[in-house]
Amino acid sequence: MSVAWGSIGGVRAAPTILHLDMDAFFAAAEQAAKPSLRGKPVVVGGLGPRGVVATASYEARRFGVHSAMPMGQARRLAPNAAYLVARFAFYRSISEQVMELLGRLSPLVEPLSLDEAFVDLEAGGVADDSASARAAGERLRADILAATGLTGSVGLAGSKMIAKIASEEAKPDGLVLIEPGTERELLGPRSVRILPGVGPATGEHLRRAGMTTVGDLVEAGEDELVRLLGKAHGASLYRMAQGYDDRPVVAERDAKSVSVEDTFDVDLHDRVRIRTEVERLAERCVGRLRASGHSGRTIVLKVRRYDFSTLTRSETLRGPTDDPVVVREAAARLLEAVDTTGGVRLLGVGVSGLADYTQEDLFAQFAEVAEAAAGGRDAGEAEAVAAEPAASLPGGPGQAAPVEERRWSPGQDVRHAVHGAGWVQGSGVGRVTVRFEEPWSAPGRVRTFAVDDPDLEPSEPLPLVRGTGGPERSEAAGGGAAA
DNA sequence: TCTGGGGTCCTAGGACCC
DNA sequence: TCTGGGGTCCTAGGACCC
Q: N or C: which end of chain A has fewer CB within 10 A?
């Protein structure tokens, strides 16, 4: 093997790959927005009967609450925590501020989610050794705190995998740099579960084969891992276990699918209602598809039954579509073949096989497909294809949002004509309790109103740091899964 | 008061084609 | 008259991640 340009075995010679992970992001954002919650247990997630925890603040984690835990269980563990709806538009606006700071370090920024990203510091020319990388990382943490009031943890290493492990190690509010060359001794004694791609199932699989540490995997050898886990998974795990990881930081990745799904508060039994929900989901899905500038060929219906068994049915069209009618009808067809006896807890509709055709390109595609269809056997299908692009042209991306009755959700931003900005602390029996405070104020006072008090109205989130742009716009507040 | 929502990637079998 | 093989597309399901 030749030593090419300071890279050995897929790991850089300098720790110039940075992984940023914001600390307890959703919960920390809520604490920053709501002074009375600072230092207190806060749980953000779905508040319905079937909700789960999205993020728990560090104070709540001490009670054993963690992500993906059913809300009911969280409430039992931490009955005095604040339970708040997830306000994604708000988190997105903070995320954009953070990503903008990352963009100043390098053109190669790879977001993994709202609160996580890789940055290639070398490509940005801001670091070429340990000292400069550490300085860039600390500067970034300070900039994020100044711009958003939130803390993030930074991992620095010669590869993505190790940088991510480093940021985990750095939490909360820290920075860890792992010197290239020390990966194997670091990984050896650790649980196999720290490797990306090893979840509960693979972890259990490996445990039954007598492997619990990363060192065990190296010792077992590639052939054994491939035999156990399959070609792709086994081979990549063997490389990871040795600390080899040459995956580049990739700035732009094309979306492969778009989907929406809803879990219902109570199982659906009525076939007509189920069909109506599928059609609504199909339309929501197309709204998102169009907003992203895509069309797609494969329509997927997802059904989770009363017993949590989940199935998908899919249908591939002869050409890509972004026509709500076509997607809705395909989804309805797929539903016909699904047995829903016993009830349905979740329905979902997705589109994959995406093409980023502009409308003009869609015309070209149309001509091609129509031609192919003319020579084909199935006249019915050809007709359906012919209907797609034509129908999709006049309609704009705007879709009518269903009018929903106003309900006050815990955590929601409101404004009162007399008392100013605040947030809903709770509601029930015709009353709504509001705490009046702002991100930069002292903890505020609580007042109670009638739910239909005309002086009280939903409002936009306030920026966390005074005078810094903040959220420019937000989608309808709430965004919970409640049907 | 058991288990969200949005994604990605991989595998495996059958159809179909050369 | 065993059992041909390889490539690609489609469908369904599963594991994993945040």
A: N
